[in-house]
Amino acid sequence: MLFPVVTCALLMLPLLFGFIDTLLPAFGYFPIASKHQFSLSVWQQLFSYSSLWQSVLLTLFTGWAAALLSLISALWLIMHCYQSRWWQFLEKTLAPFLAIPHAAMAIALLFLLAPSGWLMRLVSPWLTDFNYPPLWQTTQDAWGLSLILALWVKELPFMLLVLMSACSQLPVKRSLALGQSFAYSSQQVWQDILFPQLIKRIRLPFFTVLAFSLTVVDVAQIIGPSKPVTLALLVWQWFSDSNIDLRLVGAAGSLLLLAVVVLSVLLSLGLEKLYLTRQLNKAMQGVRKSASRGKLARGLLVTLVLSLVLSLLVILIWSITWRWRFPDVLPAQWSLHYWQQAGSYLLSPLFNSLGIAFSSAAISLILVVGCLEYQLKQANTSRWWSVMMYLPLLLPQVVFLFGVQVQLFKYRLDGNLITVIWAHIIFVLPYVYLSLVGSYRAFDKRYMQAAVSLSHSYWRSFMAVKLPMLTRPLGLAFAIGFAVSIAQYLPTLFVGAGRVSTLTTEAVALASGGDRRVTAVMVIWQTLLPLLVYSAAIAWPKWRYRHFRGMHS
After folding, report:
1. CB of 110 closer than 8 Å to CB of 511
2. Measured between alpha carbons, how far is 519 from 309 in angstroms, rounded to an integer?
């Protein structure tokens, strides 16, 4: 019972007290700043802000566009790649893509797509006649198209992974064979039979993607519009202001952002119902259609891979550049100077990131294993656990992190590594749980029954049999938790009070106007650490149990 209680307290108490300490300042009550009277003047200030509704509309457009593009393109790819060599390619390459932090991907795309970026250099001056960077808004455009692209590139692999997992729970092959025996094309079977079932199963992951796209701050700060900014970034700017009155406006703005997320989730439920009704009516008509070729889907997949590879390649080139004038395709002079000097600015963020990520991922993994064991013993796999795990991912971070910061400041607990680790656990633990729960519950309990009958000790059997057999899913869950921690931006800033620097906080700060070569080195380390942990999580079980044939099945 200890593990569920501790886990629930770690997740729910910060959300509850953080939300309360954001709600009260939104109505003028902020005792820590000598404001003891409830008032609606904060909301009047919020609604009188000149570009507020532009920010709200921009947030809705970019968030919904990124989420829907990710979902639709993922469904399209699944339909055309199933049971092909592309499916095997996806299974092997999705994990490394997921390990790349959002901020790192946004910075890489910024270096690729900016007017002085590598794409423009590749076609200049021989095609464009540009000898200087054009005054184009290819990034940070007013419509947020570059922000949508960055979110799509990063969220599409996640949606693909979720859909592939959902496909493994459905009789896909049997459905396709049965549908084709009635002269339906495979695409019709997917669209009329399988897609409705898949959409029901990925409802919560889609809500997570939608909520993230609506509330993201670091990616919007790097590659999003600047006039106006998205609502989440606007709220963050208010919270960062030294003027207490603006911080109260930020509290009210965070509640408005929460309302945007809640209404968007409700709208998506309504759209889902309409879609399912439409597909049912369409399927009942019994109309047969010929299948279209999957060239567009394969082209989409190639475009995604190329954009990721080119983005990471240009980051690598910038890190070893000494002089690179526009429109040269490659640097005129190369140098390892910024790698050699990395110790002067990299060591503190690097060690902080490693310590926080390892600690938060390890603690989360221990708590999750304890909770799953408790669920198995109690035969309790209620949906309440999934809802609790998704709650920190669905709530906008700015809604409760400000309140958490206020409480920590009150007791002088802000600005140290311990509290930052605790803040990261709030977001790491749900991902560890969601990535491990399927494999853990699928474990054949007959192995444990046989081991207990021989050793007469449950925990001895647990340590000697169950954990070794679950080494691979445990390692992958740890790697996912590590990557999630490395990517955290707002929790580090709010709880660390600006005194705890990590690779992500430094990379985002440098992206706003720092030296591209220094930024590139920082981004490479930010990307490399999760990739190394992912690689170790995959390679270690293979090496450790290389002489045990059954451990590789």
Report:
1. yes
2. 18
Residue 323 carries which DSSP code?
A: E
- Domains of the chain, earliest start first: 2-20+52-318+331-552 (1.10.3720.10)
| Residue 482 identity (one-letter amino acid) | F
Question: Each residue of 374-389: pLDDT tens digit?
Answer: 888 877 666 777 788 8
Is the model's pLDDT at 553 over the cut of 60? no
Read out DSSP for 24-63? HHHTT-BGGGTB-S--SHHHHHHHT-TTHHHHHHHHHHHH
Averaged pLDDT for residues 469-490: 94
Cα(185)–Cα(183) distance, integer angstroms: 6
* Secondary structure in 3-state letters for 68-133: HHHHHHHHHHHHHHCCCHHHHHHHHHHHHHHHCCHHHHHHHHHHHHCCCCHHHHHCCCCCCCCCCC
Residue type, 379: A
Q: For residue 23, what pLDDT is reported?
A: 95
At 39-79, the pLDDT tens digits run: 999 999 999 998 999 999 999 999 999 999 999 999 998 98
Q: Which is nearest to 18 in space by CA: 245, 218, 254, 221?
A: 254
- Measuring CA to CA, which residue among 178, 200, 199 is closest to residue 189? 178
| pTM passes above 0.85 | yes
Q: Where are the alpha helices (DSSP H) in 286-416?
A: 295-319, 337-340, 343-378, 383-394, 397-410
